[in-house]
Design a protein that fits this description.
This protein is an alpha+beta fold. Helix content is 32%, strand content 16%. The protein has a five-stranded mixed sheet with strand order 2-1-5-3-4, with helices on both faces. Helix 2 (88-95) crosses helix 5. It is globular, with a radius of gyration of 16 Å.
């Protein structure tokens, strides 16, 4: 199959790249754009390691064909940082020790950001429900919940 041109905005930057029609969005991000934050943990959309924002909504990028992102906005873990530094959820995850090996963390942080974008004041139950699609073998989930609650409560460094 011949490559096709994909136009999309990644982390605020307009991109035009050649992709194979069968490449997943995860493969496009990692292999074509060298954005390696999102990980392939399962390849079946079950673990959440590859979660990115597509037009502001969380998706498992291993299940999206790259060409489905035509004309759309993609935000990866690399795109959360602002002029002020790390996103508050990133800082809270670090502060709370909510990361260990780091493999699942990009997807978990993206999911947490998506939750807070949609619901800036979630209950603990809503946090746990939102994070249920992100699997972690190292940290457990208590630190994740605490980090998200810190952001909700405005806790700083």
């Amino acid at each position: 199959m011949s490559k096709q041109i994909l136009h999309l905005t990644v982390n605020g930057e307009d991109r035009e790249i050649l992709v194979q029609p069968y490449q997943t969005l995860l493969e496009v991000l990692r292999d074509e754009l060298d954005l390696t934050g999102a990980k392939e943990g399962c390849g079946t959309g079950d673990c959440g390691c590859c979660t990115v924002l597509l037009d502001g909504k969380p998706v498992t990028s291993c299940l999206i064909v790259g060409l489905q992102a035509e004309g759309r906005r993609v935000t990866t873990i690399e795109g959360l940082e602002t002029d002020e530094g790390l996103d508050p959820i990133q800082r809270a995850f670090v502060r709370r020790g909510a990361l260990q090996c780091g493999f699942c963390i990009p997807g978990a942080v993206i999911m947490a950001r998506a939750l807070l974008n949609e619901n800036p004041n979630p209950s603990e139950e809503e946090i746990r429900w939102a994070m249920a699609g992100n699997l972690c073998r190292c940290t457990g989930y208590t630190k994740w919940v605490e980090a998200i609650q810190d952001v909700v409560q405005g806790v700083k460094e």
